[in-house]
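Archive transcription. Copying these from loose printouts into the bound notebook so they stop getting lost. Printout 1 of 2:
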Amino acid sequence: MSTTVRPFLMFEGRAEEAMNFYISLFADGKVTEMVKYGPGQPGPEGTVMIASFVIAGQTVLCSDSFVKHGFTFTPSLSMFVTCEDEAQIKKLSAELASGGGELMPLGNYGFSRLFAWVNDRFGVSWQLMLP
């Protein structure tokens, strides 16, 4: 097996919901694997033990932690998306920021035609760029 590096998102009970939201935003979006906790296993039954999904050609892993942590996602690590066109960046910016927030609203900041930095409703940070 060769060495791989993949983003891993740890949720506390919303992994499947987040994953389904993310795959709905990208044309190639799909769930490639999902294993849920069953009866008698350490996590709450029906929550995600481990899952993988693909968006824009990138495989992302995720899970639901049944342990409550004193931390969550931070914008210092984000998903960076190079968009194909203006329609795509506008759609992604609006949909990802809905229920979350804007760190940098969609605009021209000089280093690209359009750029936005948003937090989604799950707390995951996204940088969106139209070169």
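Printout 2 of 2:
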Amino acid sequence: DAVELVERGAAGPLIGLNRSRYLLLEFASGGIPSGTEAIFHELFLLGVTPVIAHPERSRFFAADPSRLEQLVLRGAVAQITAGSLLGDFGEAPLAACEDFLRRGLVQLVASDAHSLDRRPPRLAAARRYVRRSWGTESESGLFDANPQALIRSDSLPWAPFHSERGFGAEVAR
């Protein structure tokens, strides 16, 4: 429950990824709770940065990327899944990944690995895909600079482009 999350954060520190200020949050595929923007604001006031896990697998965000954009522009971090980027979850999540990347809404790529057999990490393949499709600067930001900053609880140093040219614009299309 989102209200309980904020109350717990006010009572004492929330434990984020690698004990950082970054808190991984996963939404149901059909939508986000009403008042999410206000809850994110409260988390920011507590020094916590929400990381939205695999928004590409959410019909809510995929159908209207401006909903994800509003959260990212307010300071949330979007983390897509390597397998989604490689088509492991089907065409819709892959298309959403591409759209989010093009719009400059993605700061991290994660494995979402559950095991080596059932859902392997696939990070190396995703890294190669990003390098080929979006360029070395995007690859370094998504797989090196931002993840390293996150585990140190630092500000993310690499930001994708927020312009009409979009994400990875250094790569000729």
